[in-house]
Each structure stands twice: as C-alpha cells, then as structure tokens.
Amino acid sequence: MATLFVRLPNHVGDAVMTMPALNLLEAAGFKLYLIGKPFVGELFEGTNRRFDPIEGNLLDDIKRIRDLAASVKNPRGILMPNSFGSALLFKSAGIQSTGLATDGRSILLEHAIPEPPRMHEVERFWYVAYEALKAMGIKPPYTKLTKRINMKLAARNEAGARNLAAKIGLPKRYAILAPIAKGRHEGKEKYWRHFNELCKPLRDRGIEPVVFPAADEAEAAKAACPDATIYEPTSLGNFAALCEKAAIVIANDSGVSHIAAAVGAPQVTIVGVTDTDRTSPWNEKNVIVGRKGRWPEVDEVITAIDDVLKTKN
After folding, report:
1. How far apart are CA 268 and CA 82, in angstroms?
2. Do both 108 and 175 map to the same domain?
3. Nearest in space to 268 (alpha carbons), one of 281, 278, 279, 276
4. How far apart are CA 295 and CA 298, in angstroms?
5. In a domain, 248, yes or no
6. Which residues pair with 185 in a beta bridge?
C-alpha cells in the first residue's frame, strides 16, 4: 500500500471538513500520514491513521518531516491548506506534493490543481483530493460526496467521555453551548451575545445547558454564559464524544459546530457574519439561524431548538 502524506489545515473546523476527502484518498488505496497542528491530531485518532505534529518552527518541522519522509520510497503528498508555507514545508522535506495553485506556490508543486469555483469548504477539500488522484493517474474510487462526515471516535475518547460524565454528574439530558468564537471575520466579531438567555428555556424543557470551554476560554465563557453549568476543559477527543451524546449542540459558526456535525449531533448553528454556503456544518441535522449581516433574535433561536428537538424525538 502506497503512503501519502497529507498536510491538514491549521484550524479545527477546517481540519474536520477534510474528513470526507481523506476517506476518498484512503479508499483509493493509500496509507495516509497526516501532518498538522498538535491540537487537531486527537480528532483523527479513531481512524488509526498516523499523525505527526508541526510545532511552528519551520526548520525543526522540516527536519522532522524530512526524517519521516525518508522512510518512504518516492514520498508524495497532498496539501489541503492554500498557503505557500505548507507547500514549502513539503518541498523542503523532499515530498512531491499536489495542491491548489494558490498563493503563488505552483513552482513548489508536482501537480498544481486549478482553483475551483466558489463552493462549500467540504466540497473544496473533496475537489483537491479528487483532482489530485486524477493528476497522479489514479481513478477515484467513487464520485458522490454525501452530506455526512462520519467522524470515527477513538475508543479511549468514548470511554473518557463516559468516565468524565460520571465524575462530574453530567445530567442525562444536556445541551452543549459554545458561546465563544475566536478571531474576527471581515473585521467583525464571530459570536452571538445572547447565549445566556437560552439557559432558562432549555431548563424549562428538561435539558441542562452546559459549557466545556477551551483552556484559554474559561473566563470568557463564564462571562458570556454565567447561568450555564460550566465545567473544566477536557480534551478535544473527549469533547467530540460528549457532543455525540448531547440532546443538542448550540454553537456559533466555529470549530465546535463542525465537531458536532462530524459526530452527527443534533445542532443549531448561530450565524451573523460568516458565509453559510461555504462554512456551515456539514450535517443534515444542522439548523442554521441568522445570516451574514444579521444575527438572529433570541426567540428565533429558541424556535430552532424546538424544531431540532422535535425532529430528534
């Protein structure tokens, strides 16, 4: 089985959205070696694919990836990110790579794939994988992209989530809230300001609102949603397993919304500044409230929650 190195995107949501593309590459007969930021590795543990982290120091990363590539005859790779730096890393490590002809990096690529028209990011990553196979002279094993990610959870994360739930006394019916979204989109804040107003309506419906913040978001989560039950941060893999068991996940358009989509959780995604045709969670169970340029009112979100809960039941 031939080995293929795959450079993953740097952000959690983007990394999740590559999963259907990775499945296509694996179905084509490749053994995948995944390369990416350390914090995304746990999301891929259930696939039993090798994952090697990059730490951000280019020279150290090149040496480490070069040593890894040296164990493979004629190492080849695929770049999921659009950046020049990702192409430079693989080129410097001796990996002949294929990727989109973006950021002036075509000279570093074995095969430069033309940019596709505007499409969802899941479709874009799929396009990269599909066209890369064709460029390498390999017929893609299938052509249909389904509206499911089907993330495989590691057994240790499923067990970790069960043990954590028992330890903290997590209620049987809970809603995971994700009130924080880092960074800005086109200069605008990416988070909805009214998550705390969902706590009483959820409890009225017999569902406990809970937050599992990232380690660097704990204080911001408490400020944004003080009436929710806020637990200590947990690992990304355990968090994904907790999302899978939740009655509902309510999040901004963020990494959390994409993790929920990946495990097939019932969810409501709240948007106000992002393009839902490009970055909405890839999940048929997802309900989007709001649109670019207009955050939703609280009653709109509550109506969406009820619609999702009815569908689930």
Report:
1. 29
2. no
3. 281
4. 9
5. yes
6. 188
Q: What is the DSSP letter of 8?
A: P
Q: Do 58 and 114 lie in a common domain? A: yes
Is the separation of the CB atoms in 122 and 282 below 8 Å? yes
Express each pLDDT in 4-17 by its tens digit: 999 999 999 999 99
Q: How far apart are CA 29 and CA 76, in angstroms?
A: 14
**Domain span at 198:** 165-312
What pLDDT digit, counting tens, does each position of 171-191 carry?
Answer: 999 999 999 877 666 666 778
Please check whether residue 67 is in contact with residue 94, taking contact to mean a CB–CB distance below 8 angstroms. no
Give the global pTM: 0.93
**Tokens 């746990």 found at:** 42
d(CA 233, CA 210): 12
Q: Do 101 and 173 sit in the same domain of this protein? A: no
Q: Which residues of 188-207 are buried (b: 16+ CB within 10 A; e: fewer)?
A: eebbbebbbebbebbeeeeb
Q: Give the Cβ contact number of residue 73 at 10 Å.
A: 7
**Residue 86 to residue 61: CA distance in whole angstroms:** 11
Report CA dihedral (197, 163, 217, 214) to the nearest 10 degrees. -120
Given a contact cutoff of 8 angstroms between Cβ atoms, the answer to whether 46 and 154 are in contact is: yes
Pairing outcome for strands 188-189 and 184-185: antiparallel
262 close to 240: Cβ distance less than 8 angstroms: yes
Q: DSSP E strands: which ranges in 142-237?
A: 174-178, 184-185, 188-189, 208-211, 229-230
